[in-house]
Amino acid sequence: MKKVLFFLLLMTAVIGRAQTSLDLLPVGTVAPDFTVTNSKTGEKIFQLSDCKNKTSKDGQAVAGVWTVLDFWASWCPDCRRDMPMVKEIFDKYNTKVQLVGVSFDTDEARMKKYLADNNYTWLQYCEFKKWKETKISKDYHISWIPTSYLIDPDGKVYFSTVKAEEMMQKLDSLDKEGKLTVNTIKK
Fold first, then answer.
1. Which string of DSSP letters, residue by residue, matches 105-159?
2. What is the pTM assigned to this prediction?
């Protein structure tokens, strides 16, 4: 019994330290750009910088969009536990926030099956390389998954967390403040 208690205390300390020692991008940092393309045609589906506030060619202001980047993998038990909450975020805010899953899966078929089996239909980005070998994990300082970032309409990091519930709370708060409005980015 003492060994089990010691083990549980040790694991709690390790996990707590891992979550508090994350070196995530600081709030206010310009979010690194990336593009999601169709794997068959190479056509651009999404580019993060397209979500930023802009001025159109005719000089008109084009409002940017709040974007949630959810870093995960189908093989990750913590990610699988959080995915229902991420789906709640998508269901509740998909007209006001662009949600992009960033998967660290290496097996495309396995990832797609997991998404389809669970009806997770939001946009996904994946390099299909090992997690630590991906450019996006380096750009976003991902050392723990799940991790999520909230990118503001100016293209800057507004919030980051390793808990989907905290992301939902932040979105609820922004919505109550009237900061989330229906977005114009096509899904």
1. -S-HHHHHHHHHHTT--SEEEE--S-GGG-HHHHHTT--SSSEEEEE-TTSBEEE
2. 0.83
How many Cα atoms occupy the beta-carbon half-sphere of 45 within 13 Å? 15
Q: Is residue 183 a contact partner of residue 151, using CB atoms and an 8 Å limit?
A: no
Q: What is the CA radius of gyration of the chain?
A: 18
C-alpha distances (whole Å) from 79 to each of 11, 46, 107 are 18, 23, 16
Collapse the DSSP code of 82 into the 3-class scheme (helix H, G, I; strand E, B; otherwise coil) and give the result.
Answer: helix
Write out pLDDT tens, residues 109-164: 999 999 999 999 999 999 999 988 899 999 999 999 999 999 999 999 999 999 99
Count Cβ atoms within 10 A of the Cβ of residue 183 and give its class: 0-12 exposed, 13-18 middle, 19 or more buried.
Answer: buried
CA distance 136 to 134: 5
Q: How many CB atoms lie within 10 A of CB 64?
A: 21
- Give the up-direction half-sphere exposure of residue 122: CA atoms within 13 A in the CB hemisphere: 24
Element (H, E) at 72: strand 66-72
